[in-house]
Target: APC family permease
Amino acid sequence: MVYGLARRQLRPKVPLRPGEGDKQRLTSLEGLSALSLDALSSVAYGPEAIVVVLVVAGTGALTATLPITLAITFLLAVLVISYGQVIAVHPDGGGAYAVARKDLGPRFSLLAAASLVVDYVLTVAVSLAAGADALASAFPAVAGEKLLICLLGLALLTVVNLWGVAESARVLMLPTLVFVVAIFGVIVVGLFRSHPAAVVGTYQPVHVEQTLGVLLILKAFSSGCSALTGVEAIANAVPSFRTPRIRRAQVTELMLGALLGVMLIGLAVLIRRDHVVPRGDVTVLAQLTAGAYGDGWAYYVTNLSVTLVLLLAANTSFGGLPVLMSLLARDHRLPHLFGLRAERPVYRYGVVVLALLAALLLLASDADTFRLIPLFAIGVFTGFTLSQTGLVRHWAGERPAGWRRRAVINGTGAVLTSVAGVILLTTKFLEGAWVVVIAVPLLMLLFARIQRYYTDVGAELQLGRVPDPPDRRAGSLVIVPVGEVSRLTRLAVGAALALGDEVVAVAVHGDPRKSQALHQAWDAWNPGVRLDIVDSPHHSLVQPIVDYVQRAVDENATEGGRQIAVLIPEVEPRHRRYEILQNQRGLLLATVLRARTDVVVCLVPFRLKV
Model:
């Protein structure tokens, strides 16, 4: 009593499930580590995407790297402010699909869903490919095995997510901190050095193919916009934050924007000053790292931290796409099985589909980061534009205090992201963007057709309406396929007697001697159930039973309509590895009966102990 035992007995503590309770939710710093890796890790490939485009005009064209990066950073600032508004309006999670569904209507919600699916799949592929590039920069010996490394990383992520190991923000804080410190170290130390401490990679001659013009600058800008991916992740996960959720999520969004903007500008300054051009077997970020730290241990730590963070960034899609697919399943736009959760809980069907699609992309692109980037950013900017446009309609409809200022902010974001999306599409169309142009409408058509099917099914089933009284049957007949007298037969006949008014066992034999032996065994057992044996000279099992059931159905139709059921006994081994040793005739019979008759088909399992 003195030590408070009585109080604990009167007020017992019920263990919380994972994710329940405010302490299990995210602080701003934890949210930054858990939800910002996709955006922060884009510094590994975003600046390099600009350099790869500009260098075709010669090393002198690299002076345009900084102005282009400043334009991208301005767009980033607009997006951060705009998504702060999304967080305030949609505290239950303001993903582009949710915003479009609420504020823009069904067609735009289909467009948002399709673009998000493309975005999530490409996030996995691009992050893994960029991670393999970073690993190859530290260890050039694996440069020829990047595709294999990507597929192994994808397999690891798939297994982990199928197993259901939940992300821990506290665990992610360490690699995120190491990554951010390492990148800021590259910028600060690199700016203080008068010349690079070391040069890595093999020299590649620069071939001037065109002059620096508006079209080339637009192409570089569109490629660099890949650095803006992941900005929306915090707005999608507002319910994951501790109270006050809106304020914490907005602070996290601002921290993300500040960190990403400073890193992009700092790296662009170094690229412009040192005229960093692509070199063989290393990334531009690896060159800047070597220029700041040399080629010692700090170089390896930085590249390994980049690889790890990119792997973790790929994992964010495994948390996002299966949830999106479950929402689409709930809205009848995907098969309902995508809404099923395992006990852990995990949306396993969504995880498997994501892994398969990402694997196909990696194989098709040979894990080349810059073949994937043109596909990557278009879906992202479609989602950006839809969410901002939806907010403009929300403010115009609700008209709260200061709604015009908020509408201007979101409208500016919508215009800028739509312009950026058009630039991406026009400049990258022949480089692979056409794939997205085809994939997004096909996904929209798929979602619409599935929804139409579920609507037709609901109408035929009269869901939501009170049905007529059930038909009253005169009785029931249960047909039990048997092979011989055994415990399996005893189980099946016993279950049939409990279910039906009349039970008939039916066996199929092609050998008269076996038929006679079965009759004798049945008479000796005498279960009180009639046994009919069907002769099958061709030793066929399924078709004779189906014909027998069909004759029973026809006779029943002329006699007044009894309910007919077929009860099929099945042996289930204790271990799955033994299933192949059991015949599957029962499942085949059940499938054929369901396809050709309207009888009730039941499977009765007999579970073995071996």
